[in-house]
Amino acid sequence: MAKRSSLSIRIIEGKNLPAKDITGSSDPYCIVKVDNESIIRTATVWKTLCPFWGEEYQVHLPPTFHAVSFYVMDEDALSRDDVIGKVCLTRDTLASHPKGFSGWTHLTEVDPDEEVQGEIHLRLEVVPGIRASRLRCSVLQARDLASKDRNGASDPFVRVHYNGRTQETSVVKKSCYPRWNETFEFELEEGSPKALFVEAWDWDLVSKNDFLGKVVVNVQRLRAAQQEEGWFRLQPDQSKSRRGEGNLGSLQLEVRLRDETVLPSSCYQPLVQLLCREVKLGTQDPGQLIPIIEETTSAECRQEVATNLLKLFLGQGLAKDFLDLLFQLELGRTSEANTLFRSNSLASKSMESFLKVAGMQYLHGVLGPIIDRVFEEKKYVELDPSKVEVKDVGCSGLHRSQTESEVLEQSAQTLRAHLRALLNAICRSVRACPAVVRATFRQLFRRVHERFPNAQHENVPFIAVTSFLCLRFISPAIMSPRLFHLRERHADARTSRTLLLLAKAVQNVANMDTPVSRAKEAWMEPLQPTVRQGVTQLKDFIMKLVGIEEKEELDLQQTLNLQVPLVKEGPLFIHRTKGKGPLTSSSFKKLHFSLTTEALSFAKTSSSKKSAFIKLTSIQAAEKVEEKSFGSSHVMQVIYTDDVGQPQTIYLQCKCVNELNQWLSALRKVSINNPGLLGSYHPGIFRGDKWSCCHQKDKTDRGCDKTRSRVTLQEWNDPLDHDLEAQLIYRHLLGVEAALREKFRLLSGDTEAGTSTTGPGGAPEDSLAQLLHVLQDLQEAHNSSLVNLTPTERHHLLELQT
């Protein structure tokens, strides 16, 4: 049994932001922090006070996190980026919204006294005395304190206040992981205060000391417990009156917290086996659960359910069979060919998820070069005469402004070139298309042809394929390349218009150049010759795609299965001096890294035959490095054991926070089951004779900060988590259990739900009765797991004062 927590985050847009630039505008982006650790950076939207991002993320993290914060920043090329404001959502706030927090929220000013982080290790005791008891407070150490100085660290000390007396620890210079091991005592008398205050501060020689956070201890509860020791989270100074929201603008967010208790695999086997049996039997068995599940699933959560089911069947090797069943169900209730797969049915949503999970690498290979070219050329392109702006084009070679007709002709030439390049790339990609995707499209083509065999419907099977491949996959990626990880930045207005027009052209090709699609926007006519040629090319491509025999497909899949799957690759900078040389940028050398399910390898280039590697099973931790260590906040360390079992560390520099977190996430996911994972690490480096983070002189010291192996970002190429997907499906079915029981009652008359247990091949209510039994058993297993839990949380002495 394991507790899994995840955050689904959608950063939609901002409005009425203040201007931070002399031009009267801003260049806003968002930083997302979980407990003050940066995990996400959106793209920058240039020159606007009402930015639209539309970016979605899912973060897996420990259940113990406290808050998620959204900082809206203004990017500056020459100086430090400005902080516009922030929105902070606590775990309790998110837990109070089971369906997710959604809406507009005012940005608040960032108060330095509230920007606290980290924990402090205290030992608290009530010591009996002859005249009066004494309160003993031992300040041992702290970790992950906020850095307040330019060197990326702080000079922390602690003040302990009780009953009008204040005592202070010594100052530890240049550390966010200080160790004090100092003890203070106070007399406990009748009528003494009920609270002990422990405050952490950053010492400054010239300016005022910076507040780092505080802990408030309830002395009455401590008297009852007599003693307590542990790590206490530092809290902001809430005694100050909150600053007003001012005119900082608003941020529109959708954030959902999901906590799941995942049971052992054996508990989910009855549910998995029941669903798999239904898919294997297909529409031949009248007792279909899949259509009942679709019927009881609301449109609001259909995409989520489709994704969970798709991943479950992918893990069971039944994705093609599951989708084939959905194809047959949709074809069975469709009478008009032109409405086929046009609704947001379970089939449509499942295919969208399938293509993103199984076809994203294929999409990048086909579409990536064309998108890159559009971004690099930055040409003004417009076909709609009512929107042409001649002034945006500049002058021609004859030093005169271009006419409207010249702009339209030049735009048409540019779009025709991009469309031809894309169609040629698609036509060359038959073998590059993943085998399971080809097999699924082949099955879809056959099913549609069987349903609409007449001559007037000869294009319908082709349109069925293109409705998914082009309309729901390639075209959305063209319009929003950032959301499909094709670019790191959003397109500017000019590039966005080019991409939109290109996507429209692709849609016309995908619709087989029907008169209806041409009539919608007559000004697209200059592209019609290329569109018509594209229809012929696309039909030829589909015939090749679905024409590969199943035996050849199986042989190819077996060949692919022998290859070690690539998890992530790309250039990184490796530190060559291993912590011994000077702290300069020249200490890093650029190499190409490849992460597979077996090793992390690196070489001079991606094609180099000679490379070094680290076995995946030897990785013990992948963590961030303090900014002060190398003068960069984008450095990570991989801790591993070498061939003789000795611990080693390599330091790798990334180009941005997103790349850093993506690599950390990938490394953590592929090594999560390693037996030698570390529980603590040093966020600094060992230089000279001590660690830069905590100043300890023992190089083998176990570490001053806890590792974060469970903090990962969900991506399309994540390994499947079969138990989690089964748990999510169970959770959904439990939520619609009342509808399932009502459906059972209608199918079986007035028979009490859940009493029939006949085997497969029976009436529809038989399978539904088995499903209800399985849900009941899983619910009992969850209840038993809660009863048998051993209490692990310590008695809290912390009491927040307002």
Automatic annotation (TrEMBL):
<dbReference type="Pfam" id="PF00616">
    <property type="entry name" value="RasGAP"/>
</dbReference>
<dbReference type="InterPro" id="IPR023152">
    <property type="entry name" value="RasGAP_CS"/>
</dbReference>
<dbReference type="GO" id="GO:0008270">
    <property type="term" value="F:zinc ion binding"/>
</dbReference>
<dbReference type="InterPro" id="IPR039360">
    <property type="entry name" value="Ras_GTPase"/>
</dbReference>
<dbReference type="InterPro" id="IPR008936">
    <property type="entry name" value="Rho_GTPase_activation_prot"/>
</dbReference>
<dbReference type="GO" id="GO:0035556">
    <property type="term" value="P:intracellular signal transduction"/>
</dbReference>
<dbReference type="GO" id="GO:0046580">
    <property type="term" value="P:negative regulation of Ras protein signal transduction"/>
</dbReference>
<keyword id="KW-0479">Metal-binding</keyword>
<keyword id="KW-0677">Repeat</keyword>
<feature type="domain" description="Ras-GAP">
    <location>
        <begin position="301"/>
        <end position="511"/>
    </location>
</feature>
<dbReference type="GO" id="GO:0005829">
    <property type="term" value="C:cytosol"/>
</dbReference>
<dbReference type="GO" id="GO:0005543">
    <property type="term" value="F:phospholipid binding"/>
</dbReference>
<keyword id="KW-1003">Cell membrane</keyword>
<keyword id="KW-0963">Cytoplasm</keyword>
<keyword id="KW-0106">Calcium</keyword>
<feature type="domain" description="PH">
    <location>
        <begin position="565"/>
        <end position="672"/>
    </location>
</feature>
<dbReference type="GO" id="GO:0005886">
    <property type="term" value="C:plasma membrane"/>
</dbReference>
<dbReference type="Pfam" id="PF00168">
    <property type="entry name" value="C2"/>
</dbReference>
<keyword id="KW-0343">GTPase activation</keyword>
<feature type="domain" description="C2">
    <location>
        <begin position="1"/>
        <end position="105"/>
    </location>
</feature>
<keyword id="KW-0863">Zinc-finger</keyword>
<dbReference type="InterPro" id="IPR000008">
    <property type="entry name" value="C2_dom"/>
</dbReference>
<dbReference type="InterPro" id="IPR001936">
    <property type="entry name" value="RasGAP_dom"/>
</dbReference>
<keyword id="KW-0862">Zinc</keyword>
<dbReference type="InterPro" id="IPR037777">
    <property type="entry name" value="RASA4_PH"/>
</dbReference>
<dbReference type="GO" id="GO:0071277">
    <property type="term" value="P:cellular response to calcium ion"/>
</dbReference>
<keyword id="KW-0472">Membrane</keyword>
<dbReference type="InterPro" id="IPR001849">
    <property type="entry name" value="PH_domain"/>
</dbReference>
<dbReference type="InterPro" id="IPR011993">
    <property type="entry name" value="PH-like_dom_sf"/>
</dbReference>
<dbReference type="InterPro" id="IPR001562">
    <property type="entry name" value="Znf_Btk_motif"/>
</dbReference>
<dbReference type="Pfam" id="PF00779">
    <property type="entry name" value="BTK"/>
</dbReference>
<dbReference type="InterPro" id="IPR035892">
    <property type="entry name" value="C2_domain_sf"/>
</dbReference>
<protein>
    <submittedName>
        <fullName>RAS p21 protein activator 4</fullName>
    </submittedName>
</protein>
<feature type="domain" description="C2">
    <location>
        <begin position="116"/>
        <end position="232"/>
    </location>
</feature>
<dbReference type="Pfam" id="PF00169">
    <property type="entry name" value="PH"/>
</dbReference>
<dbReference type="GO" id="GO:0005096">
    <property type="term" value="F:GTPase activator activity"/>
</dbReference>
